[in-house]
């Protein structure tokens, strides 16, 4: 069984986040390896390797909707090398199962979460013990048509904690210490608000109030059939309400990853501050801001990980990624600062207009929440990043003017980075049928881009002359530094000598631009 991580490979190569190793493919490889011989490899190590493909009987490929080009390239090559190979697709793109089966050469699609369907798949299809129709959430071809056995299944919390993901990253990656290896701590999202939009892109809100109800179970249903969550995001519809893994299962996974060479761990969740909040409610967690963060659960998790020897000794960096600003208060910032000091933390704002965010996007996080969260987190030694978007449907001149004002406010309080994305419609979202919009607001989008570029360049200038710990990667005779605690990739110039690949170095920042940082190696601290 060969599992291939093809996430973010686009048409066959990565254009960003080169150092990320996602949690999904490791989960699939872990389930398989409990039952049979399995291997997990990144896309780059499989394309062009006839040997590894020739030895495989099943090829499991994890992809996003943007990775169909990479999928086609891999499947075409694999079929040529091994015509009897069976191809199974999964990941976020699995909800496009009909297209994957009919247009992209895939034999089976496991739709949504794998914990329940995959073991059944092994029994029924690989070991031929039962009929494929008995495997839940499985897509496959029958003659010239597509069959889906059932809707996708949201894995219960206790099952999430019982699965042991693949941790032998030293067999998967050439230099595992370089990569940010994501460890899932929360599955799903707590935001079951919805866009209150009528007459656009098939959205016809009836303003019933269900998705703004204080009764959690009411937020699950929408008589107008609008998918839950922010209009541009598919996480709630694909992965359901937030469910937390147990502290013990997460600490065990981190410990094993470290034993196999991992040095940069990201505790992954759509919102890290949802961790343990599902334990505070009856039923399911569907409100993004109530109840408050579960401080005891968060501290128990971070304390457990920090007690591991290499972590407490500073040899391993632990980070988190996304949080919702409405859950940040002084106590939250204090706990995060105690265990994660010096690492980045990402906050989604999207626009600077509260009414647009709440009613059009379905995102009940206000500008004041974000500004206060940035202030608190910076005060406790974290490095806040803020996400914004442009070309969103129905965004007016006023929305952009408000967003530009917020960029200036974020600059005044010293947010480290503003990440500005262009909106792209995704399957299984409320905005799936709404294209990007820029007509009539081109001038304001340009001004927003200029303001963000100016801010990020100014912040990078503050790095000049500073020293950072960075892992070195050599590519085509050039050296690149990946800061151990994350940050901009550092261009280190031509390799002065061989043997620096994977080394931890001390780097001085010598130059910056709006999209790059330059540096020089002062000292090599350790090499693999």
UniProtKB/TrEMBL annotation:
Keywords carried by this UniProt record: Iron, Iron-sulfur, Metal-binding, S-adenosyl-L-methionine
InterPro entries reported for this sequence: BchE-like (IPR051198), Elp3/MiaA/NifB-like_rSAM (IPR006638), rSAM (IPR007197), rSAM_horseshoe (IPR023404), rSAM_sf (IPR058240)
Pfam entry (one): Radical_SAM
Domain Radical SAM core residues, every copy: 207-461
GO molecular function: catalytic activity; iron-sulfur cluster binding; metal ion binding
SUPFAM superfamilies: Radical SAM enzymes
Co-factor(s): [4Fe-4S] cluster
Coiled coil residues, start to end: none
PANTHER family: ANAEROBIC MAGNESIUM-PROTOPORPHYRIN IX MONOMETHYL ESTER CYCLASE-RELATED (PTHR43409), METHYLTHIOTRANSFERASE MJ0865-RELATED (PTHR43409:SF17)
Descriptive protein name: Radical SAM domain protein
Organism: Desulfurococcus mucosus (strain ATCC 35584 / DSM 2162 / JCM 9187 / O7/1)
């Amino acid at each position: 069984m060969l599992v291939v991580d093809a996430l973010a490979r686009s048409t066959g190569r990565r254009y960003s986040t080169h150092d990320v190793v996602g949690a999904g493919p490791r989960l699939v490889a872990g389930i398989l390896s409990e039952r049979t011989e399995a291997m997990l490899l990144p896309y780059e190590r499989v394309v062009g390797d006839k040997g590894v493909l020739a030895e495989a009987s099943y090829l499991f490929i994890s992809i996003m909707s943007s990775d169909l080009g990479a999928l086609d390239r891999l499947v075409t090559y694999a079929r040529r090398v091994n015509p009897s190979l069976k191809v199974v697709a999964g990941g976020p793109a699995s909800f496009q199962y009909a297209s994957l089966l009919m247009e992209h050469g895939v034999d089976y699609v496991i739709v949504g979460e794998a914990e329940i369907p995959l073991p059944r798949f092994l029994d029924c299809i690989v070991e031929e013990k039962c009929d494929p129709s008995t495997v839940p959430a499985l897509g496959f071809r029958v003659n010239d048509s597509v069959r889906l056995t059932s809707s996708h299944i949201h894995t219960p919390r206790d099952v999430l904690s019982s699965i042991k993901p693949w941790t032998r990253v030293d067999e998967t990656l050439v230099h595992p210490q370089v990569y940010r290896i994501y460890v899932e701590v929360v599955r799903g999202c707590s935001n079951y608000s919805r866009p209150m939009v009528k007459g656009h892109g098939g959205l016809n809100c009836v303003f019933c109030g269900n998705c703004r109800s204080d009764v959690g179970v009411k937020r699950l249903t929408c008589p107008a059939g609008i998918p839950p969550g922010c209009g541009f995001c598919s996480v709630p519809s694909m992965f359901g309400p937030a469910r937390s893994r147990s502290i013990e299962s997460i600490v065990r996974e981190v410990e094993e990853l470290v034993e196999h060479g991992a040095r940069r761990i990201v505790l992954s969740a759509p919102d890290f501050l949802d961790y343990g909040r599902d334990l505070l409610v009856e039923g399911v967690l569907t409100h993004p801001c109530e109840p408050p963060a579960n401080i005891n659960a968060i501290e128990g998790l971070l304390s457990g990980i920090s007690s591991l020897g290499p972590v407490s000794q500073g040899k391993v960096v632990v980070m988190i990624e996304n949080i919702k600003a409405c859950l940040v208060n002084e106590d939250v910032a204090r706990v995060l600062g105690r265990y994660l000091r010096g690492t980045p933390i990402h906050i989604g704002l999207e626009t600077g207009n509260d009414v647009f965010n709440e009613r059009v996007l379905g995102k009940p996080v206000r500008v004041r929440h974000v500004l206060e969260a940035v202030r608190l987190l910076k005060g406790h030694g974290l490095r806040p990043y803020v996400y914004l978007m442009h070309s969103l449907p129905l965004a007016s001149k006023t929305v952009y003017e408000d967003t530009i004002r917020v960029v200036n406010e974020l600059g005044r309080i010293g947010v480290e980075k503003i990440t500005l994305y262009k909106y792209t419609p995704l399957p299984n979202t409320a905005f799936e049928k709404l294209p990007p919009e820029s007509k009539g607001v081109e001038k304001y989008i340009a001004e927003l881009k200029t303001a963000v570029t100016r801010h990020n360049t100014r912040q990078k200038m503050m790095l000049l002359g500073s020293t950072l710990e960075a892992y070195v990667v050599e590519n085509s005779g050039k050296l690149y530094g990946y800061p151990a605690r994350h940050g901009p990739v550092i261009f280190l110039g031509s390799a002065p000598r061989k043997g620096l690949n994977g080394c931890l170095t001390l780097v001085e920042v010598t130059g910056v631009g709006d999209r790059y940082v330059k540096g020089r190696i002062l000292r090599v601290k350790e090499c693999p």
